[in-house]
Design a protein that fits this description.
2 domains, four-stranded mixed sheet, about 35% strand, RNA Polymerase Alpha Subunit, Chain A, domain 2, 13 strands
């Protein structure tokens, strides 16, 4: 199961750019909490605390417990969106989705590759990962922290696919099982060298054509002598 994290929040009055600007000037980030059977709640979180937390967790699949000032119970949530300033690199807004025990949610789970492939260690191959997250559906208690794949046995041109992921009962992978997650490729330099060598090889067809031409010339000269 995925780890849990805790973040404190405060309710905020009003919405709009003016309110949001004042919050940011005070070191806080506007946020909203929404979910099934819950009226949207406009909040704010401490910018520094939120930044530290989001840097330390896998944001897409970590349950964040929001402790809202004035509420008796905390809310288990998933971070649905973090809006960033286009060039300042600062958070400008956060969306939290309230989750409930026993109710399935859709989320992305990271894929972690473990080990060094045989084809990389011994044959100079290159490990290429094309899928870094897998979309899944499951109840909160079954959210995986990550999918771990051992790549040590992969040789040149070997690959692992979505279907190679081992999952617990109750977890649904919402992606084509035939898609490739990673593969060990032949180095490009080696491929280019082989192509260059092939280009430098003499063309036998041309030589044969030249020999035929010489034979015709000989025939012609012979014919001339006979005349």
């Amino acid at each position: 199961m995925s780890d849990k994290a805790v973040l404190k929040a405060e309710k905020r009055e009003g919405t709009g750019k003016g309110v949001a600007r004042k919050l940011r000037q005070a070191g806080r980030v506007p946020a909203v909490l929404y979910g099934r059977e819950l009226e949207s709640m406009h909040l704010s979180v401490d910018a520094h605390d939120a930044e530290l937390l989001f840097r330390s967790i896998s944001v897409d699949n970590t349950i964040v417990t929001l402790e809202v000032d004035g509420e008796k119970e905390a809310f288990d949530t998933l971070v649905r969106e973090i809006q960033m300033h286009p060039w300042r690199g600062l958070m400008v807004h956060v969306d939290f989705l309230r989750i409930q025990a026993g109710v399935a949610v859709d989320l992305d789970v990271p894929v972690h590759l473990e080990g060094v492939p045989h084809g990389v260690r011994h044959n100079g191959g290159v490990l290429e990962q094309t899928i870094h997250e897998i979309p899944v559906r499951c109840i909160p208690s079954k959210i995986p922290d990550a999918f771990h794949l051992d790549v040590t046995e992969l040789d040149l041109n070997d690959a692992l696919h979505v279907s190679d992921i081992v999952i617990e009962e109750g977890i649904e992978l919402r992606i084509d099982p035939e898609l490739t997650i990673c593969s060990v490729a032949v180095p490009r330099v080696e491929e280019e060298t082989e192509a260059d060598e092939e280009a430098l090889e003499p063309e036998l067809v041309g030589e044969e054509g030249a020999e035929d031409g010489e034979a015709e010339d000989s025939g012609g000269e012979s014919g001339g002598d006979e005349d």
